[in-house]
Specification:
Length: about 450
């Protein structure tokens, strides 16, 4: 089995495409089931945030696996694989491992170094485990990715600013509000992970009074109570908009919540002397409808605009240090993978040797029925000892060679020389428990 990553992100696809690809939590199991039902895909983990939709897969062939995954993603996006192809990136084997580790460390995030992606990867891993789509190879990959992400944040200052997408978005919003959010009334639309981080970050920045609205009123009440905010019924959204200066929209709705008509009515009741109404749309699919940005007195900051405006993030030295960690860890994982790949071949060789020895001992027993049990046992021990000594050095050496770049050729050569039939299994003998790495909670991050 080989590793394959296929995905689209803010780097390769417009928000409209990411919206069509986005997988809501209620659909995760269905999409994972569709993936592993494909002929070339044996394992799959799905990552879906506001900035990326990616499939990590164990496949039996590159072209077949790529076609299978593209077909499922195109089905999700309701378009043809050809139309989707221009927005996808593909990473295979070593490049796949490198990409997953870069994602885990925050190097591939819109806000470089943000830690919340770790929580989102952990959630994706749990989804794969619960759906039984994360098999032996992806268990190892995901566990190592979570560990590498924690290591990067522990050993470098890449996340010293403590930024998340919400933090970065609010910093951009402040530039439209005299550079300061303190004392600015704010509304958070949505009480999920991103909404919760929005309320927490607004409170930390001194914005207020704070209001929260959500389709599920109970969640809005609980979130509001945690931060001394006010829960507002969704039916009163228009009135609430007319009283605030900043809105963080982060729902899981499949249609825009802040429509042009809703925002226009709120602006009609709002004092224009207060400055612009800043709408932060952190949802995919978008919560702010097309055309709202054209209304006078409104500033809309969405994922697409953030990608264009955000600075590089951490100091070059911190990013370089993390890149070095990733390089080292990728090579370590590949060494493990190469060594694990040859293990079934070595086991098959030893099994073949045992079969040959067993057959010869049975033939000897037929030819020399006069041997006593002790004599038969001594002959058996001697023959087994000779065979094991003959095989020991070659099998040790082939494991060493297999751990080097290009090492897969040695296992293939061994199979060819001894005509071995090796089952195509992933290179781990047992499925580990899901590792609780305690990364940052999956609130915010990439959405």
């Amino acid at each position: 089995m080989k590793l394959l990553v296929v995905g689209a992100s803010y780097r390769t696809a417009p928000v409209a495409t990411l919206e069509r690809l986005a997988v809501p939590p209620t659909e995760f199991t269905r999409i994972l089931d569709r993936l592993v039902a494909q002929p070339y895909v044996s394992e799959a983990v799905l990552v879906s945030t506001c900035n990326r939709v990616e499939v990590y897969a164990a496949v039996s062939g590159f072209h077949g696996g790529l076609g299978d995954i593209c077909a499922v993603l195109a089905e999700q996006a309701d378009c043809s694989p050809t139309a989707l192809a221009n927005h996808l990136y593909v990473h295979y084997d070593a490049a796949a491992v490198n990409h997953v580790f870069r994602v885990a460390t925050g190097l591939d995030s819109m806000v470089v170094g943000e830690a919340q992606i770790l929580g989102q990867l952990r959630d994706a891993y749990h989804w794969g485990t619960d759906a039984d789509s994360a098999g032996r190879l992806l268990h190892e990959l995901m566990q190592q990715a979570l560990r590498v992400g924690k290591r990067a944040h522990a050993e470098t200052g890449i996340d010293r600013a403590g930024q998340s997408v919400v933090t970065a978005a609010l910093e951009l919003a402040a530039t439209h509000l005299d550079g300061d959010l303190a004392g600015r009334p704010a509304l958070v639309v949505g009480a999920g992970a991103m909404g919760s981080l929005g309320v927490a970050t607004l409170a930390r920045l001194g914005a207020g009074p704070l209001s929260v609205t959500n389709r599920g009123a109970d969640r809005a009440v609980r979130l509001a109570e945690s931060y001394g905010a006010t829960a507002v019924p969704m039916a009163e959204l228009t009135a609430a908009l007319s009283t605030v200066d900043i809105v963080v929209a982060a729902t899981a709705a499949i249609e825009p919540v802040l429509t042009r008509s809703v925002v226009a009515r709120a602006l009609a009741d709002r004092d224009p002397a207060r400055g612009p109404l800043v709408l932060l749309d952190l949802a995919v699919p978008r919560d702010v409808a097309a055309g709202v940005a054209e209304l006078p007195g409104v500033e809309v900051i969405d994922i697409e605009r953030m990608a264009a405006l955000l600075a590089e993030g951490p100091a070059a030295g911190d990013a370089a240090a993390v890149e070095q960690i990733v390089t080292t860890e990728v090579e370590s994982f590949l060494n493990w993978l190469r060594g694990a790949d040859v293990a079934p071949t070595v086991a098959a060789l030893r099994g073949r040797a045992d079969d040959v020895v067993g057959a010869e001992l049975r033939r000897l027993a037929q030819r020399r029925p006069d041997f006593t049990d002790d004599q038969r046992a001594e002959v058996a021990r001697t023959v087994h000892r000779v065979v094991q000594r003959l095989l020991h050095q070659p099998t040790v050496r082939v494991r060493q060679l297999a751990a080097e770049p290009g090492g897969d050729q040695y296992a293939a050569l061994l199979r060819e020389l001894f005509d071995l039939e090796v089952p195509q299994t992933s290179p781990v003998d047992t499925v580990p428990e899901v590792m609780e790495t305690d990364p940052a909670p999956s609130t915010g991050g990439e959405g």
